[in-house]
Amino acid sequence: MTTPPIELKPSSHPLSDAERDAILASPGFGRHFTDHMVVIKWTEGRGWHDAELVPYAPLSIDPANMTLHYAQEIFEGLKAYRHPDGSVALFRPEANARRFQASARRLAMPELPVDLFVAACDAIVRQDEAWVPAHGGEESLYLRPFMIASEVGLGVRPANEYLFLVIASPAGAYFPGGVKPVSIWLSEDRVRAVPGGMGDAKTGGNYAASLLAQAEAAAKGCDQVAYLDAVEHTWVEELGGMNLYFVYEDRIVTPTLTGSLLAGITRDSLLKLAGDLGYTSEEGRVSIDQWQADSESGALKEVFACGTAAVITPVGTVKSARGEWQQSGGEPGEVTLKLRKALLDIQTGKTADAHGWTHPVA
Predict the structure, then answer these.
(1) Which Pfam families does the entry link to (predicted)?
(2) I need a surface site. Which of 13, 183, 211, 237 has the fewest CB within 10 A?
(3) Residues with Cβ < 8 Å from 349, sequence gap 6 or more?
(4) pLDDT for 11-24, tens place per residue?
């Protein structure tokens, strides 16, 4: 099946340069949006059609829209960076496109072709390139591709109509005051996902399931919540929105993908980058008892979380019903900072990309 070209219908009233510059001076994260969005329709029997870049605007949704009732919704998150020569590049959009397809399969939704996903991201970045921060630091243009069911009806079945959209939001440095370790609450009575469920799909339901535990973590004075496996309640899995890494003297370990963890793009990138820097990196299992014992003995040198938004976040304090301990003296570790710099240098074009991860937007 051929993919439709994206018809450009740009806004006749984009934000003024002065208004846009004022936003870019302090964009925060996910608070402001660019002038345009990409919209592509899918209809059973017709496939993907009516691909358009149009002015950013609210959607009109019928109260009986099937997404509102049965949650057929998936999304992705990726960034475009301004490079030192003024060009703009996306980071690993093909990997996001493939994960988007996997999420669609899990939720019985149509799979968007990889080339159409990337073309949609290219289109909005090309049209709204002035929104890509030019400061040369960690600032970026965050892209949010997503798909929802658009059929109207209350029958419990996969919908026969869908909308795919891409919106974009300028993002400042996640740590404007420098990299600060976060505190973690280990939730031992709530789980994020189970094997065979939707834990490995990037769907809003997984994030909704994490909100109560995240609120409980905040009540305990913690920044983030970490989950254990749903079967034995023993093995550390991930945070509500980030993967975890454990740094030992001789190796770097991230929890094995079990079907209940999200296969993070940043997670995968760091597995490869660690090898480039001379570290042994691997997937494995780390129990909650092992985490605490190894931290207290000093065998576990550092712990960090990773994801698209924050890149790498060092873990400082860990709290649970069984007690509290500090990781790495509550300070960012050497390996954590080295990996973070290596990844950001590739993303921002400050160093050569040996892996072919950067995708120039012409």
Answers:
(1) Aminotran_4
(2) 13
(3) 81, 83, 84, 85, 87, 89, 358
(4) 999 999 999 999 99
